[in-house]
Amino acid sequence: MKLFVDTADLQEIRTLASWGILAGVTTNPTLLARAGARDVRQHIVEICEIVQGPVSMEVVATDTEGMVREAREYASWHPNVVVKIPITEAGLAAIRILAQEGIRVNTTLIFNPVQALYAALAGATYVSPFLGRLDDIATEGMTLVREIVTMFRNDPDIHTQVLAASLRHPRHIVEAAKAGADIATAPPAVLKKALHHPLTDIGLERFLADWRRLQEGQA
Fold this sequence. Notes:
Elements: E1 2-6, H1 10-18, E2 22-26, H2 29-34, H3 40-50, E3 55-58, H4 64-75, E4 81-86, H5 89-100, E5 105-110, H6 113-122, E6 126-129, H7 131-136, H8 141-153, E7 161-164, H9 170-179, E8 183-186, H10 188-195, H11 198-218
Parallel strand pairs: 1-2, 1-8, 2-3, 3-4, 4-5, 5-6, 6-7, 7-8
Helix pairs in contact: 1-3, 4-5, 6-8, 8-9
């Protein structure tokens, strides 16, 4: 399973990219605003230059014509740009048009398996089931990922990738991988938290303390 980071913060992206774990980035208008992106195009291009992988940019139009127009514009910015389209009737029509033009689409706001199937049949490159938001309403989000993965693998004509989104904690990363997701995207805080463990910290402290004692004994 590949890892994406869900942010538009350039410094966070640089840091995580330096670890060698990032395969892509997902953004949305809220994340871009939070990152203080004044020139959105330049900001997205800069992200594309940091991470050599898919970078999702979300449309704000709600009609098919507007979505297609925005998507064409975004895709022209950089070869790595993937356009996020919501799973609506207008969105499905836009996905079909864009797929025929060779523009990659990440279908967002997936909350049931049939939505994912429709997106795949329309030609989406990725579908993004939102796990955390389902968990928030006492529905197991990971069940949705498992169902989508099973559906897609049962149909050899579907090549759409499952991108587990709205991950809230490190365990979500593990469960997404076990469920067969192709990709998981998580905020920087979740990816960083998954790296750390108190026993790792204790072990390192003990090794360093033993090394200091060894050095003192040789002095």
